TrEMBL record, chain A:
<dbReference type="InterPro" id="IPR046867">
    <property type="entry name" value="AldOxase/xan_DH_MoCoBD2"/>
</dbReference>
<dbReference type="GO" id="GO:0016491">
    <property type="term" value="F:oxidoreductase activity"/>
</dbReference>
<dbReference type="InterPro" id="IPR008274">
    <property type="entry name" value="AldOxase/xan_DH_MoCoBD1"/>
</dbReference>
<feature type="region of interest" description="Disordered">
    <location>
        <begin position="1"/>
        <end position="35"/>
    </location>
</feature>
<dbReference type="Pfam" id="PF01315">
    <property type="entry name" value="Ald_Xan_dh_C"/>
</dbReference>
<protein>
    <submittedName>
        <fullName>Carbon-monoxide dehydrogenase large subunit</fullName>
    </submittedName>
</protein>
<dbReference type="GO" id="GO:0005506">
    <property type="term" value="F:iron ion binding"/>
</dbReference>
<keyword id="KW-0500">Molybdenum</keyword>
<feature type="domain" description="Aldehyde oxidase/xanthine dehydrogenase a/b hammerhead">
    <location>
        <begin position="44"/>
        <end position="159"/>
    </location>
</feature>
TrEMBL record, chain B:
<dbReference type="InterPro" id="IPR002888">
    <property type="entry name" value="2Fe-2S-bd"/>
</dbReference>
<dbReference type="InterPro" id="IPR001041">
    <property type="entry name" value="2Fe-2S_ferredoxin-type"/>
</dbReference>
<keyword id="KW-0001">2Fe-2S</keyword>
<dbReference type="InterPro" id="IPR006058">
    <property type="entry name" value="2Fe2S_fd_BS"/>
</dbReference>
<dbReference type="GO" id="GO:0051537">
    <property type="term" value="F:2 iron, 2 sulfur cluster binding"/>
</dbReference>
<dbReference type="Pfam" id="PF00111">
    <property type="entry name" value="Fer2"/>
</dbReference>
<comment type="pathway">
    <text>Alkaloid degradation; nicotine degradation.</text>
</comment>
<dbReference type="GO" id="GO:0016491">
    <property type="term" value="F:oxidoreductase activity"/>
</dbReference>
<keyword id="KW-0408">Iron</keyword>
């Protein structure tokens, strides 16, 4: 059962532990605000980004990309480019067609899903602007770019397919011959028709989840090399292990002849959870040319061709009683796949299917998702992947319901959420939430926010007709993360499991090497894993080194996404440590001439109960290395592996409150204050957790106020640079007020929950609810995202008639 | 080709360069100063910020030939005999970086900001770093780090000198 903790007490504990920076003898490392081990190379510039790698004889690749959304390729001539100085080779899609295979989709969500061929380089037809149609390989990156001009390509234009609703009309031009409907996926529980029949209140809305560009700061880059027998691929990827398997299948290079390395990776947010055309092509080029090749994208190239995120049309309706209690929810979703189905493209909206009910109890739920092909860059995972969309819809609806009933938006949530004593709770969407305390997080957030005072100020501004109106937005969220129990993934037709692997090696001097299958790109695994190992083995934090991201070093893993690293990968580390400790216990008992059961392990030493006799784990490690005096039949090694498959998802939750000032004359919105109280269970490193929340907030706020990938009527992407696609700067964001409550997870021994996506999931509806709240007295009931000044101003004008 | 002389992190280099070569590519591809990364191609992100004759510049927007005769300081040249620069230390202390890709540019821009305002307010830091984008941190800890670094530099008498 859920351990119940007083929120105020926890908040104080949290405040205290944040002040701890330096080691104290005997203090537990888990929970300490350790500074990160990773920082030293990052603040001094001694990093190894993929683009930093220079190999002898290395060649540079540049791609000719389609300037059209949709066209038949009638001719590609690379011969003139081939003759230019420094150019070693140039190829069209046709030149590579026999060996390039197709890019994989690992998630066939239905048996009849349309899964079009996806050649890494287009051969017959281009289906989105930016699709590669030819490449040039040269001795220098400038010369490679120069030679692109000399490649001649003729296109026969075909109609662009841009609007999802129109794409589903029978007479729509087709992206693929099989039609524009990729799949229809349904979920239903309870009797939705009964729930909506005679319901006193029904709220119906259509929300647009605009298309987003993930925009990790490090552009993608790939380096490939071969010695003629085996291959090494360096890539700015989140998924070196998954990539190795997929590339082996795609290229025919045997898995054991392919090593994939993710060096320092500069952010991902889902965008580097992919098997990209450029990775496949780099391998093919190095195989053909026998020389190392490098490709690094420019930002404008990346905005076109890094997979995009979101892009869904949500038609949602909510039925409730006159007291505001929810009866049923219907969701009819159109999800823009873009032109092809990439690694997990069709699965992303379905990750949301289980979250539309949020933290609330209801009798019935009906979900339908239609995947639609368009002539745009494929969509795929972007921070939150499906769950931000679901959370946005339900949290916007809860505010609309509150407005309909004249209730405070916090009160309407309170009447519906799962109470602390009801956990574990089986939701209408079929999940079992293990633990949570929504009231504690909400109460703490209201206190930090000064909710009542802000409501009073809002009323005063409304009263005096202040041109700058105050809006207050609420978002009480949960999410399913920690991807994922392998059995559940199997039941959803996903092409792999959701386990994670770890190895722990005790070195002769007592130092510890950890090899993790998680693949960090900014999260701080080296620090957090060191804290876990330090406690589990009783060794100093400084004595632990963590290796990752190289299939030659870490042979097995499922990598990093879906807030899975700690709750799956961290558990694998912990279990491997348990095995090390048990092996050490047997040897220590032998050395101490005691029974293993008589030993207790505290602070790094095995002690014989009731005597002073003890051996440190370092002494045991050295004795194991020497192997002079081991028990019969015991092998001279403490090293241990563990592969952990979770039983359930992880369900962090929290309450976010946002206050905005909206200038009704200009439409400009300014965030005045933002409070986030998150409950991610127990915490390994509060500094890292807070950092994850901050960054998540910035991305969720970015979707609410600033970001949108825009295609014009001809299907050209207009937002190809950072001047057009606006991610928030320091000047655009407020100082965040964050705090935590701690309701430990009951599904893992550390009691931890995922945190990587929480801030992004929670914040978008908090901000939009605030904007709408500011304008509701003027009759505004929605503002489409991003809520730019123009859109806010228009919403005001339209409501005024 | 043009012949240029440029000092980078205290070492003088003579290079034959194409007039179109960007300073950032000279640093990264020719001199091996890969501590300075490239995040965009329009001068928006600031990841490639360095000091050019003592003031910050986005090295993707400067031609190598424009740096002829100049002194370039990159993040790799910041640490002194006593260890890290106070701003590097402050970024570490305040957890002002996650993936770290924007960090070299952010640190250089922060140091430059203090040359005009040795004790910047929170708003001044936010406005001053508007040209340096970070996708990981949400900036709260960066702002704290810059103000903390400024404090440490004032205590060491290391700001305000132009």
């Amino acid at each position: 059962m859920t351990e119940q903790i007083d929120a105020g007490m926890v908040a104080r504990q949290v405040a205290e532990s944040d002040e701890l920076g330096e080691p104290v003898p005997g203090r537990r490392e888990v929970g300490a605000a350790r500074r990160r081990k990773e920082d030293a190379r990052l603040v001094t510039g001694r990093t190894r980004w993929t683009d930093n790698i220079q190999l002898p004889g290395m060649l540079h690749v540049a791609f000719v990309r389609s300037p059209m959304a949709h066209a038949r390729i009638t001719r590609v001539d690379v011969s003139a480019a081939r003759r230019l100085p420094g150019v070693v080779a140039a190829f069209s899609g046709r030149d590579l067609a026999a060996e390039q295979g197709g890019l994989p989709c690992a998630w066939p969500v239905t048996e009849d899903m349309v899964l079009p061929d996806h050649p890494p380089m287009a051969v017959e037809e281009v289906r989105y602007p930016g699709e590669a149609v030819a490449c040039v390989v040269a001795t220098d990156r400038y010369l490679a770019s120069d030679a692109l001009e000399a490649v001649e390509v003729d296109y026969e234009p075909l109609p662009a397919v841009l609007d999802m609703t129109r794409a589903l009309a029978p007479d729509s031009p087709r992206v693929h011959p099989e039609g524009n409907r990729a799949f229809v996926w349904k979920f239903a529980a309870g009797d939705a028709d009964a729930a909506f029949r005679d319901a006193p209140v029904v709220v119906e809305r259509t929300f647009v989840q605009q298309r987003l560009i993930p925009t990790a700061m490090e552009p993608r880059a790939v380096v490939a090399q071969t010695d003629g027998d085996s291959f090494t691929l360096y890539s700015a990827t989140q998924i070196p292990h998954v990539l190795r398997v997929m590339l082996a299948i795609t290229t025919g290079i045997p898995e054991h002849k392919l090593r994939v390395i993710a060096p320092d990776v500069g952010g991902g947010f889902g965008s580097k959870l992919q098997v990209t055309a450029e990775e496949v092509l780099a391998l093919l080029l190095t195989r053909r040319l026998g020389r190392p090749v490098k490709w690094t994208e420019s930002r404008s190239e990346g905005n076109l061709t890094v997979h995009h995120g979101r892009d869904q049309l949500q038609r949602v309706s909510l039925a409730a009683g006159a007291d505001g209690r929810l009866r049923g929810l219907k969701v009819d979703l159109l999800a823009d796949m873009g032109a092809y189905l990439m690694l997990v493209t069709p699965g992303v909206p379905l990750l949301g299917a289980f979250m539309y009910n949020g933290i609330y109890k209801m009798d019935a739920y009906d979900f339908t998702c239609t995947g639609v092909f368009t002539t745009k860059m494929p969509t795929d995972a972007y921070r939150g992947a499906g769950r931000p969309e679901a959370t946005f819809a339900i949290e916007r609806l809860m505010d609309e319901l509150a407005a309909e009933l004249g209730l405070d938006p916090v009160e309407v949530r309170r009447r519906n959420w799962i109470a602390r004593e009801e956990f574990p709770y089986a939701t209408i969407a079929g999940l079992t939430y293990d633990s949570g305390d929504y009231a504690a997080a909400t109460d703490r957030a209201l206190e930090l926010f000064g909710y009542d005072a802000l409501r009073a100020e809002q009323a005063a501004r409304r009263e005096r007709g202040d041109p700058v109106q105050l809006g207050i937005g609420v978002s009480t969220f949960t999410e399913m993360c920690g991807l994922a129990p392998s059995r559940v993934l199997g039941s959803l037709s996903y092409g792999a499991g959701g386990w994670e692997h770890a190895s722990v090696r005790m070195l002769p001097t007592g130092k510890v090497e950890v090899v993790t299958g998680s693949s960090p790109h900014g999260q701080g695994h080296e620090t957090a894993w060191s804290q876990i190992v330090a406690d589990a083995l009783g060794v100093p934090f400084e004595d632990v080194a963590v290796a990752h991201g190289d299939t030659g070093v870490s042979h097995k893993g499922m990598d990093t996404y879906g807030s899975r690293s700690l709750v799956v990968g961290g558990m694998a580390v912990l279990r491997a440590c348990d095995k090390v400790r048990e092996k050490a216990r047997q040897i220590a008992a032998h050395l101490l001439e005691a029974a293993a059961d008589d030993l207790e392990f505290t602070e790094g030493s095995f002690r014989v109960r009731g005597t002073g006799a003890a051996r440190t784990i370092q002494e045991v490690a050295l004795a194991t290395f020497a192997a002079h005096d081991l028990p019969d039949g015991v092998e001279p090694s403490l090293d241990s592996d563990a592969t952990y498959d979770p039983d359930n998802f992880s369900y962090p939750h929290g309450t976010h409150l946002c206050a905005v000032e909206v200038d009704t004359e200009t439409g400009a919105t300014k965030i005045r204050s933002y409070v986030a109280v998150d409950d991610v269970g127990r915490v390994v490193n509060p500094t890292i957790v807070t950092g994850q929340v901050h960054g998540g907030l910035a991305q969720g706020i970015g979707q609410a106020l600033f970001e949108e990938a825009v295609y014009d009527a001809d299907g050209n992407l207009l937002t190809t640079t950072m001047a057009d696609y606006l991610i928030p700067s320091a000047a655009d964001l407020p100082e965040f007020v964050t705090d935590r409550t701690e309701t430990p997870a009951t599904t893992n021994p550390l009691g931890v929950k995922g945190v990587g996506e929480a801030g992004t999931i929670a914040s978008t509806p908090a901000v939009v609810n605030a904007v709408v709240d500011a304008l509701r007295p003027r009759g505004v009931t929605d503002v489409p995202m991003p809520c730019t000044p123009q859109r806010v101003w228009r919403a005001i004008q339209e409501a005024a008639g | 080709m043009a012949r240029i002389t440029v000092t980078v992190d205290g070492v003088a280099y003579q290079e034959e360069v194409e007039p179109r070569l960007l300073l950032v590519h000279l640093l990264r591809d020719r001199i091996g100063k890969t501590g300075t990364p490239i995040g965009c191609d329009t001068g928006n992100c600031g990841a490639c910020t360095i000091m050019l004759d003592g003031r910050s510049a986005k090295s993707c927007s400067v031609l190598a030939v424009q740096a002829d005769g100049a002194e370039v300081l990159t993040v790799e040249g910041l640490a002194g005999p006593d260890g890290w620069h106070p701003m590097q230390r402050a970024f570490h202390e305040e957890h002002a970086l996650q993936c770290g890709y924007c960090t070299p540019g952010m640190i250089m821009a922060a140091i430059d900001l203090l040359k005009d305002d040795p004790d910047p307010s929170e708003d001044a830091v936010r406005a001053g770093l508007e040209g340096n984008l970070c996708r990981c941190t949400g900036y709260s800890n960066i702002v704290r780090a810059v103000r903390g670094g400024a404090r440490a530099m004032r205590d060491a008498g290391a700001v305000g000198d132009r």
